[in-house]
Amino acid sequence: MPRTILRTGDPSGINVMSLLLSPVEWAYFAFPIPDNGVSSVSTEWLVSSLLELLDMVTDADTSLLQRVLHVAHMLVTMQGTDRLWPDEIDLLNGCSVGAGRSLEPLKLFVRLKEMLDTTEFDLALNSAQIAMNTPG
Amino acid sequence: MLQEQELIDHLGKSSVEKPLSRRDFVRALTVASAAGPGLVTAALSGIMLTKSQRAEAAEVVVAAIGVLPKRPFNTKMKDMHITPICISQDWNSELYAPGLAVGINFVHKAGYWNSLPDAFKGVDRESYYTDITVDTTSPGHDPDDYDAAYNQVVSSLQNNGLKYYDIYRAHYGWHSVASYQKGTSYKVFQRLKREGKVRHFGVSQHPYHGPQEIYSDYPTIIDAEILGGNVEAMQVWFSFDEPAAVQDAFAKASKSGIGMTAMKVYSRGAGKMQADPSRMQQLGAANQPGKACIRQVLTTNRPDGKTIFKTCVSALGNLQAFEENVSGAALHHIA
Fold first, then answer.
1. Would residue A117 count as lying in a domain?
2. Contact B90 A30 (CB under 8 A)
3. How many domains in chain A?
4. Which of A58, A113, A120, A127 to mutate to test the interface with B (most CBs of B within 10 A)?
5. DSSP line for B278-320
6. Per-residue pLDDT at B335 exceeds 70
7. B60-88 burial, b for 16+ CB within 10 Å, e for fewer?
8. Is B240's pLDDT higher than 70?
């Protein structure tokens, strides 16, 4: 899947409205998608894309941070009872694709925690830590 | 007019190379000040400002908007009089001061603050309301873990020094009627209330998606929370052109006395609003989908003619978004 998701038509900066995002009618809306109509995304690609957006946040304009936070908030709710995340998500119907599991969202949560000095992701991080420390 | 635009364009190009001099910044701000309420930042569009210049521009924005009105949150929350838009913990922190300056008196997700932001130091705690979103109600987080919920609130207050939260909001709400009816979050709330750490019980109810045997749909879970009788404040996803069944459920919640807050206002509505220029025009927000969405939500009525939502939360990342959204909320004629 292509890594670049931004369409920068505005020479003065990032046009947030031009980001390719999942439609509002989908179960998970306003998530980055690699192309129109593509509803299944790997968690790895999703997190990587979101981290790219965070690299462009400035003190004057944190709009991209808000976009990422919207997705991060939803990712928190996707943590399973095994304390892991699906490694592929169907954004249209909100279901996991396949049985693969992932810890990719942790990179995002750690980055957001540092940027915002927030405790928002502590439960998810601590919960995942238990999964990583549990043998088997 | 043309000369002013030429000046702004010239200053914009200059500002890319180095910060504007004091003289040039004042020239730009003078032009912007004359643009009128809701249009100050548009007049400064294209000019890169330093942090102190942004703060000064924010003062002009604040002066143009004025002070926001406060209205009773609803009958279950009658001690709370709230502004039509809230500050959110994840706002660009440069916007906290202008938010307080226009009189915004509610901070959503204050419980996530690890420490009190500078803009709030010295502000009388009793002059603003806060909520804490208590994260123990989603499937992977040991749903309704009593100790985790209690400890989240207590440790949060120790970190940020807020003394108490006005609303304990179960976050992200419950994924089913059965999980809501277990009542663990409410038991935690009752203990924290006795200890003086929280005052009202609420929910930030997100819609869940999945098999019907596990997940209740949005109207069903909202109805259950109304019938349950213990929810005093409800924050829900709502914007322009939402399904009728969802709007009806929120209208019922409002009618029952629950204090209603709309969230995801821009993200769910902006695209649809952008495609409806006549609606933006009707709302007095031509070409400003953010402002239009805020006004749409705050003027959506129940069948009895009263508004469903007394306030909303909006993710604001820059001064232009602040001006567009907050000026949209400056509705002094709404009952």
1. yes
2. no
3. 1
4. A120
5. HHHHHTT-TT-HHHHHHHHHHTPBPTTSSBS-SEEE----SHH
6. no
7. bbbebbeebbbbebbebbeebebbbbbbb
8. yes
Q: How far apart are CA B275 and CA B207, in angstroms?
A: 25
Using an 8 Å Cβ cutoff, are B56 and B334 in contact?
A: no
CB B32 within 8 A of CB B44: yes
pLDDT at A9 over 70: no
pLDDT band at B141 (very low <50, low <70, confident <90, very high): low
Interface test with B, best of A14, A119, A129 (most B CBs within 10 A): A119
Domain boundaries, chain B: 2-64, 67-329
Q: Do B111 and A119 touch (CB under 8 A)?
A: yes
- In chain A, the residue whose alpha carbon lies closest to the alpha carbon of B321 is A63
pLDDT digits (tens, 9 = 90+) for A17-30: 457 999 988 999 99
- The answer to whether residue A115 neighbours chain B at the CB level (below 8 Å) is no
Share of chain A above pLDDT 90, in %: 65
Amino acid at B107: V
Q: Identify which of A79, A117, A123 has the shortest CB distance to residue B114.
A: A117
Residue A9 lies in a domain: no
For residue A133, the model assigns a pLDDT of: 79
Using the beta-carbon criterion (under 8 Å), do A81 and B115 form an inter-chain contact?
no
Token readout for B121 is: 């130091």
Contact B90 A80 (CB under 8 A): no
Three-class DSSP category at A86: strand
Distance, in Å, from the CA atom of B327 to the CA atom of B294, rounded to the nearest integer, reads 9
Residue A27 lies in a domain: yes
Q: Which of A32, A100, A122 is nearest to B113 (CA)?
A: A122
What is the interface pTM, i.e. ipTM, of the complex?
0.89
pLDDT in tens, B24-52: 999 999 989 988 777 889 888 889 999 99
What is the residue whose two structure tokens read 């970190």?
Answer: B159
Q: Does residue A29 lie within any of the structural domains?
A: yes
pLDDT band at A7 (very low <50, low <70, confident <90, very high): very low
- Note the CATH architecture for domain B67-329: Alpha-Beta Barrel (3.20)
Length of chain B, please? 335
